Amino acid sequence: MVVPRRAAMTGASPLTIAAVRTALMVLSTALAGVLAAIGLASLVAARRVVTPAGRVPDTRILDLDTAAQTITLTRTADTGLPGRYALFTTGTSQYLKLGSVLAEDAGSVKRKLLTHVAPTARLGADAAFSGWYYDSADELQLPYTDVAVQTPLGPAPAWVFPAPDGGDVWVVQVHGRGTTRAECLRAVPLFHALGVTSLLVSYRNDGEAPASRTGTYTLGATEWRDVEAAIEYARSHGARRVLLMGWSMGGAVALQTALQSRHGDLIAGVVLESPVIDWRVVLDYQAKLAKLPQAVSDLAIGALGAEWATPLTRGAIPFDRLDVVARAAELQHPILILHSDDDGFVPSDASHALAQARPDLVDLRVFDTARHAKLWNYDQERWSSSIRDWVQAIGITDARAGADS
After folding, report:
1. What is the pLDDT of residues 75-102, one digit of tens each?
2. DSSP 80-105
3. CATH number 2.40.10 is the correct assignment for the domain at 59-130
4. 3-state class (DSSP) for residue 142
5. Average pLDDT of the chain?
6. N or C: which end of the chain has fewer CB within 10 A?
């Protein structure tokens, strides 16, 4: 007897359906686990972006020769750079100035110590290589005053380095993420020589200024209000023209200030050193450096900008508002950008894009090799002349000013 095809399929179907159901259950459970893992990793990555943190060690001390006053570090893209830098260490000496490279090979770099290290010093192996060269205002040997800027969250400490002949031009210096106003000390001698008073400010959640309720960064979306308060301080103390200078994330803060300040008439221009101009570009780049799967990166950036993730991120980041390339038409002030195409942390893509979008306002000076926020350290002469020439070009100072700085 010939069994009908339909009957044959029907007879086999109970076992097949059960097997498929079991497979689907296993697959869905596995998929749920994968998605949960991706989601958790994304939220952890998102939380890390907005959480203030100290320096992360990025090199190790291999040898310390106190007789010759040299130090040998593991080789990285930064530790072999020419120029003057700093090293933050663990142990009895927390901060060391480093000079020129004396020797190097594939795995190590020997540099001259510019900070004397005693024979009895004991340094931890882990260290962080930094462009932050001056550690305190006293090191500049220029007159300065400790002041407090009254921000919306309370008094925030700042330094004022007055211009040698008074004057009514001030520069408000805004430091980057995970650092303090000492990062900006490198710029003070140049502006002092140009006859410009320097105001180095702190802002919410940087460890010096008052903390916000959440204690987290908003990547410029609220920090700019503290810089606005600094402009008001400058105006009340005689400033008639104000330059803003932002380093790294401080660049994002400075740009938000320029876009939203009630004192736009006072702002004469903006100087940006290795700036963040579009956070999504930076975060995507950082995720690739960390070898995060694209799904994790996309979800992390999405979580940072979403209300549903605020219990962890403590507030949605308004990425569209922080994207200054997209808002280029709103810019009104001259902008000088100093950025290395070999930044290695904040890619220069958005800086190029902004210069292309507003060639009438934006002057981009491209460096190479210099890495992130280390342009002064790598090529102080070019860094200084770039700022000096631009400041003079926009009519802030006399062409003779700062010629010897």
Report:
1. 999 999 999 999 999 876 679 999 999 9
2. T-SS-EEEEEEES--EEEEEEEEEE-
3. yes
4. coil
5. 88
6. N
Instruction: Report CA torsion sign: 201, 211, 47, 306.
Output: negative
Asked if 182 and 135 touch (Cβ cutoff 8 Å), the reply is: yes
Least confident of 4-18, 183-197, 355-369, 381-395: 4-18
What size, in residues, is the chain? 405
The C-alpha atoms of residue 28 and residue 113 are separated, in whole angstroms, by: 59
State residue 90's pLDDT score: 83
pLDDT given for residue 77 in this prediction: 96
CATH fold of 137-278+323-393: Rossmann fold (3.40.50)
Residue 293 is predicted with a pLDDT of 84
Q: How far apart are CA 99 and CA 95, in angstroms?
A: 13
Helix then strand count (H, E) for the chain reads 11, 14
**Tokens 């220029």, residue located:** 142
Give CATH 3.40.50.1820 domain extents, the chain: 137-278+323-393
pLDDT band at 8 (very low <50, low <70, confident <90, very high): very low
Question: For 130, which DSSP code?
Answer: E
Looking at the chain, which residues constitute the CATH 2.40.10 domain(s)?
59-130
Query: Alpha-carbon distance 96 to 88, whole Å?
Result: 6
Residues paired with 110 in a beta bridge:
72, 103
Mean per-residue pLDDT, 101-119: 96
Provide the percentage of residues in the chain whose pLDDT is more than 90: 72
Closest of 274, 251, 364, 252 to residue 319, by C-alpha: 252
Asked whether 367 and 125 are in contact (CB, 8 A), the reply is no
Helix (H, G, I), strand (E, B) or coil at 169: strand
